[in-house]
Design brief:
Elements (H helix, E strand, L loop, with lengths): L5 E9 L6 E9 L3 H15 L18 E7 L2 E7 L3 H11 L2 H29 E3 L4 E4 L5 E3 L3 H7 L4 H16 L2 H10 L10 E3 L11 H10 L26
Parallel strand pairs: 6-8
Antiparallel strand pairs: 1-2, 2-5, 3-4, 6-7
Helix pairs in contact: 1-3, 1-7, 3-4, 3-5, 3-7, 5-7
């Protein structure tokens, strides 16, 4: 049995010209035990920043009240909170003394920067695209291939769905058994595979404009069957540490 240094995956992307979904062949690195532990730790930290506890809802009282939704006569469920999250945040900030609020804002900014860095560096280090599928327009109009993780971050920095898919693949491929992966794939809507290249239109290459914390949170919470931290599988091959990840 031969153990590869990567896991083959597919990324479901939409062709900007035709609007059709295509399964882009990609690879996720097989992480070492140390890399996997650092990735899971920083994923959880990004999704659950300490600053969130300082602007949380009160544990009981009106802020816990939810709307009641009627599905059919005699059948109701709890809906969204009556007091929205933005209002709760505004209340907690108003309750802080000036120095406490300044400290909170500094902590929140530092956490946001760390989460953005985690998303960017994780995808850069651990994701790659098989050649001949994805291209973007270069300065002279000629197609430039998108193959490295850094290319993916640059071209899809504003695409929450793509960044989520990359982080999800890093996590699942390195932590789930083959049978668990198969079960997840069977529940997903797989895109039809096409050999036609996809070109990223001008203007798509931009700096990240989405929240790294939000992306991490969606990956952590979307599969309740696999809470953090997750036991890691990985190769024993050495790997250089990645600046900003796991520190």
């Amino acid at each position: 049995m031969k153990i590869q240094t990567f896991y083959p995956i597919t990324l479901d992307l939409e062709d900007p010209d035709t609007g059709e979904r295509q399964a882009i062949r990609a690879r996720v690195a097989r992480l070492t035990l140390e890399q996997c532990a650092a990735f899971n730790r920083d994923l959880y930290r990004s999704a659950n920043p300490p600053s969130a506890s300082l602007i949380a809802r009160q544990p009981d009282g009106p802020e816990q009240a939810r709307r009641t939704l009627t599905l059919e006569p005699g059948r109701t469920i709890e809906g969204a909170f009556i007091v929205p999250a933005d209002e709760v945040r505004a209340r907690r900030l108003a309750e802080m003394a000036p120095d406490a609020r300044a400290a909170f804002e500094a902590l929140e900014d530092a956490e946001a920067s760390a989460a953005d860095r985690f998303v960017r560096e994780s995808i850069t280090a651990y994701v790659s695209i098989e050649p001949g599928q994805l291209f973007e327009d270069g300065p002279d109009g000629a197609p430039v291939p998108i193959v490295t993780g850094a290319d993916v971050v640059r071209a899809f920095g504003g695409r929450v769905d793509v960044l989520q898919a990359c982080l999800r693949s890093i996590r699942n491929e390195n932590t789930l058994s083959p049978s668990a992966k198969k079960a997840l794939r069977s529940r997903s809507d797989s895109a039809r595979i096409s050999d036609a290249p996809v070109t990223v239109p001008p203007g798509a290459t931009q700096a990240p404009t989405v929240s790294g914390a939000g992306i991490a949170a969606s990956v952590v919470t979307e599969d309740a069957a696999h809470p953090q931290p997750i036991p890691c599988s990985g190769s024993n091959s050495p790997a250089a540490p990645i600046e900003g990840i796991g520190r």
